[in-house]
Amino acid sequence: MASLRLWRLLSLYISAIAAVLRRASAALSHLIRCSIIVTLIESCLSLYFIFLGLTPTTVELDDHTTVHFWTSAHRRFSRPNLVLVHGFGGNSLWQFPQLVGPLSRSFNLYVPDLVFFGKSHTFRSDRSERFQARCVVEGLRGLGVGRCRVFGISYGGYVAYRMAEMWPEVVERVVIASCGIGYTEEQKREHLGKLGRSVTEIFLPESPENLRRLLNLSIYKFDPLKWAPDFFLLHLIHAMYKDYRKEKLELLKHLLAQKADPDIPIPPQETMLIWGDKDNVFPPLLAFQLQRHFGPKTKLEIIKDTGHALNIDSPARLYELIKSFSLGCSNSKDDI
């Protein structure tokens, strides 16, 4: 797990920078306004991905839509293809650094930015998860990928589910983590009421308080922003949420406006559900309910002492589960 150790070292380095900045906030306020710190972090993450053998690639789907991927620079046909779909709290760079290292040794990786995250965008008005799924699948086809396994977390789980449902000829196996599909209307209303404030205020924060609230809801084991000053959080919010904020708000509103449906179509593939037992965003009860609905082709894994952000709380265990399940299917030989 050398790459996980490298990621922990990088995290320690970033935390140290934040601690120094907290003591030197007045002197560095101009630099913060100039976006230097977040740009430095993103540059470090990009270099880390490149060090792991990934390369940035942009696919023009048509005149209206562009999808950005991080892909394995040297694809090996002896390895299966694995797609990692991020959630609403970040893009491909910010959400998967703990996983891409170990997974890149066993899979050809394809890590897209969903539309309106990172460098992906569209001029179309569709804000559905089906549209996001279509963009990922068409992007994969543009990269020459015919068959793949898919992992999606949180909002990315909605997209991964739609990919599996709509394109069974493309998706061989699917892993869905910490995702709200399969709610009843009563469960939806009850859970939204427990959040204590507007979903859009939490998931598109504009204040340090709401950003801390989001992370406290998502992460169980530690507080990554404990020592971060408010001015740094304001800058982080500006850097991460200013682009396509209106469109992201429309994505959230579309998701919330959908009628809850506990009888969603059952994906034909073998499926794994992964949940944290301390998930405060989508409670584990939903995982058991979803497993019963999907039936015997679905496995469920509950990770102890883990919140909604499985990739942060328990990256090593999450890696093991994704790898073992995704390698359980024979290697595909039908890439385009």
TrEMBL record:
Matches recorded under Gene3D superfamilies: alpha/beta hydrolase
Source taxon at top rank: Eukaryota
InterPro entries cross-referenced by the UniProt entry: AB_hydrolase_1 (IPR000073), AB_hydrolase_fold (IPR029058), Meta-cleavage_hydrolase (IPR052370)
Pfam families: Abhydrolase_6
Location of the AB hydrolase-1 domain: 82-320
Official protein name in the record: AB hydrolase-1 domain-containing protein
